[in-house]
Amino acid sequence: MKIAILPGDGIGPEIIEQAVKVLNTLGESFEMESAPVGGAGYAAHGHPLPEATLKLAQEADAVLFGAVGDWKYDTLERSLRPEQAILGLRKNLGLFANLRPAILYPELAGASTLKPEVVSGLDILIIRELTGDIYFGQPRGVREAPDGPFKGQREGFDTMRYAEGEIRRIAHVAFQAAQKRDKRLTSVDKANVLETFQFWKDIVTDVHKEYPDVALDHMYVDNAAMQLVRAPKKFDVMVTGNMFGDILSDAAAMLTGSIGMLPSASLDANNKGLYEPSHGSAPDIAGKGVANPLATILSAAMMLRYSLGKAEQADRIENAVKKVLAQGLRTPDIYEAGTTKVGTAEMGEAVVKAL
Amino acid sequence: MKIAILPGDGIGPEIIEQAVKVLNTLGESFEMESAPVGGAGYAAHGHPLPEATLKLAQEADAVLFGAVGDWKYDTLERSLRPEQAILGLRKNLGLFANLRPAILYPELAGASTLKPEVVSGLDILIIRELTGDIYFGQPRGVREAPDGPFKGQREGFDTMRYAEGEIRRIAHVAFQAAQKRDKRLTSVDKANVLETFQFWKDIVTDVHKEYPDVALDHMYVDNAAMQLVRAPKKFDVMVTGNMFGDILSDAAAMLTGSIGMLPSASLDANNKGLYEPSHGSAPDIAGKGVANPLATILSAAMMLRYSLGKAEQADRIENAVKKVLAQGLRTPDIYEAGTTKVGTAEMGEAVVKAL
Ligand SMILES: CC(C)[C@H](C(=O)O)[C@@H](O)C(=O)O
Ligand SMILES: CC(C)[C@H](C(=O)O)[C@@H](O)C(=O)O
């Protein structure tokens, strides 16, 4: 089995290094090959997603991704900026299903800005559609406004679009994920305003007929943003479009106060996937050896479970992470008085030892 | 001066009644005329925004609006549902600037789901563009997908659009609001993905040249949703488009835990405005006399300040509200042990007395 390793920018390389160390401890024989992506891709080959990197990702059984982005690339034109790599990988690999768990580890309840009783035991799974919506819809651009009160002026425009098959396949992923959990699914839309999301709601309602054991409810996106703050534990699985999912999954992650702990998976129709931490490239702390590698290590666990058919190894890693937390080891982002502050490499070592 | 009073549905009529009582105590001679809107408009005239209601709102100097929506209208076709009234009023009256303060009253710090140190003293002003964006952009609908991997299938679609003049005018409102506060403005966009919001960012940056005394920063919408949870007090004024503003202003309101306290203003180019509480119609508690009328009373204060040129009267009302809070009076939504629980009418009476 072949894993493409794409460390990227900022803290990407150092956290990926720890995850690779953990994978190497499992006693499996994975073929791993790494390639530059994001700003590193641009620096090496003049493009955030160099052809060879894309080819490697396409040929691999799974992709382990660090993070991309650095201030030094901010002045590049948009098509060359690091984040285009992630959009390009999603689209080219057909990674339409983004799974973003928001889990609060009991030991880290204090890290949240929310009151403990509101978030302790939080365990939500947000499923975000990742290759459609206004992220990719054509036409888009800047033009002369063709009509309306500002006709003739310059205007920026984009197209939100969701086709029936696109909604059906993400709905199936969501209902099946709910079946494996508490069997409750909230579909988030804006059907009161958007044609796209009235259509979304209708199709999700139709797919629901195949999953009578799952309780489905529909919620407007503005209300969902409120309920995540008010009573997040009421949610089990949420499913939504690319744009709303971008916003809500980040808000949900931040509820835990420990985004350095949260993995993510982006899957295609055949369970091939790209796995990455939910946090960013944090260029401000890059190279200092203080970044939290656990989200990346947990992403590797998701990879073992969803793409490589090694659920037991995934469990082993997840248990090892719980163990190091129970031992009181903390990187600076999750440090609290009374615990032991460690760096990136020490944390990775501790997980290896716990295995 | 003429005020159009549109009570609407659910708790709308009972909270509006208290605000009207307060306005009548000021010793000013306002002409007030009321008309049905939302579900009540549909029930009376077969349309959520009856012609006579729209005419009244157009002729008045300001509109005081309760809330719309009730489950009984959920099965109506979309164009007849209560919330169409609010979209119609915004568009027809040209109410492009929505001002949504998120303020946490010190006495109510306990109501928030966030830790007191994270939210105490919170005072953010969110300025949401209200007549453009994907809310109104044409074309939109359900069609056969004209291209892409799902070509030929049914798809829902909408158009996000912002013209230069539309962005300029809301940017001016935002910079001027920031000048009257802490002189910090955060423009929220998704310029890394959307053409509309790269254009938005460019225009806001250009308008900034006219306001060198205001510090401007740009933030992606997903990050803004996170920062609202992580460190909301870092914000002063935020400005964004209609869709992102819908989501972020509701999230920000919920941070306070006391959305029953939060007013809003929606202004046109000449300071004519529609004023309404930030909360909804709450049909579950309608008619029970337990709804919190303070958001509506504070909306009336905003109306006095922004549309009717009576800033002193606005101050009087706001001080009266602070006084009743200091007296320990609380409607059930903000009740805590050690305070005095009162109903809708008693709360209105208390404000009248405090005046
Ligand atoms: C970097 C950006 C294009 C990306 C997105 O908007 O999808 C990021 O925010 C994410 O959620 O992975
Ligand atoms: C009712 C709905 C159309 C409306 C909106 O989306 O603008 C509401 O959520 C609001 O924020 O006033």
TrEMBL record, chains A, B:
Important for catalysis (site feature) positions: Y135, K190
InterPro entries: IsoCit/isopropylmalate_DH_CS, IsoPropMal-DH-like_dom, Isopropylmalate_DH
Any one GO molecular function term: NAD binding
PANTHER family: 3-ISOPROPYLMALATE DEHYDROGENASE
Subunit structure: Homodimer.
One GO CC term on file: cytosol
The family this protein is said to belong to: Belongs to the isocitrate and isopropylmalate dehydrogenases family. LeuB type 1 subfamily.
Keywords: Amino-acid biosynthesis, Branched-chain amino acid biosynthesis, Cytoplasm, Leucine biosynthesis, Magnesium, Manganese, Metal-binding, NAD, Oxidoreductase
Reactions it catalyzes: (2R,3S)-3-isopropylmalate + NAD(+) = 4-methyl-2-oxopentanoate + CO2 + NADH
Residues covered by the Isopropylmalate dehydrogenase-like domain: 2-351
GO biological process: L-leucine biosynthetic process
Protein name: 3-isopropylmalate dehydrogenase
Top-level division of the source organism's lineage: Bacteria
Subcellular localization: Cytoplasm
